Amino acid sequence: MGDSHDIIRIQQYLKGELNPEEMNALERQALEDPLLNDAIEGFTETGIKPHKLTLLQQRLQERVTEQPQEHSRMLFNSQRLGIAAVACLLFILSCVLLWMINAKNMKDAGQTKQVTMELSTKDPIPVGNDLFIARKLTEESASPKGGWEAFNQYVKENKRILSGSNSVSVIMQFEIDAVGKPKNIRSAKDQSSFTEEAKRLIKNGPTWVAGQHAEVEFVFE
């Protein structure tokens, strides 16, 4: 059903004003177009009075006009739903990506913190001559009262200048008595002037805490 031109043809068809060929063509068209078929049946049942015909033409024209509008509305709604679905998917993907980035940053921060704590169990090695560092070798080892920084400051102020190779490492082991004084001080390797100097520094140094046994490395340069 196209427009008012078809309505005029329906009028002519019902009045018998069409030739046989045109009537056959309209009937074939009505078989393929339900709207046209309904219009012919409506005209047949109600007659074709002029004032009624005008209203019917208007209604038919409105139906023809509403069909593409309805199709456009459906298409527009479908497009809106599609856009909303894509936007929702992008939002979810963005949230997942942000969560992954934050999780990775937190993991990296935790690893960095762990490495920093592990490194801090040993004091940094200063550069200088003679004995330049003393540090514990195990976590279970006792520590000097006041901390390793204070102990190394004591060593720096009380060390004796020794001659020897460029770098010597001496590992000292000893027990701690009830009042925190070192006893049974001995070297884990050999006896030398460096060993005796380390032994003297331990014996004359501060008391020890947090353990009954100590294993300390002294490095001479």
Helix content range of the residues, please?
55-70%
Class computed from helices, strands and strand pairing: alpha+beta
State the major sheet: 4 strands, antiparallel
Give the neighbour order of strands across the main sheet.
Answer: 1-6-3-4
Domain module tally: 2
DSSP E strands, number: 6
Return the average pLDDT rounded to an integer. Answer: 75
Strand content bin: 5-15%
The shape is rod-shaped
What is the N-to-C succession of helices and strands? HHHHEEHEEHEE
Low-confidence stretches: 112-130
Per DSSP, the total helix count is 6
What's the N-to-C terminus distance?
A: 107 Å
Radius of gyration: 51 Å
Describe the structure in your own words.
It is a single chain. The protein has 221 residues and is of the alpha+beta class. It folds into two domains: 1-120, no CATH class; 131-220, 2-Layer Sandwich (TolA/TonB C-terminal domain), CATH 3.30.2420. The chain is 59% helix and 15% strand. The protein is built from six helices and six strands, in the order H-H-H-H-E-E-H-E-E-H-E-E. Helix 1 (4-15) packs across helix 3 (34-46) and helix 2 crosses helix 3 (34-46). It is rod-shaped, with a radius of gyration of 51 Å.
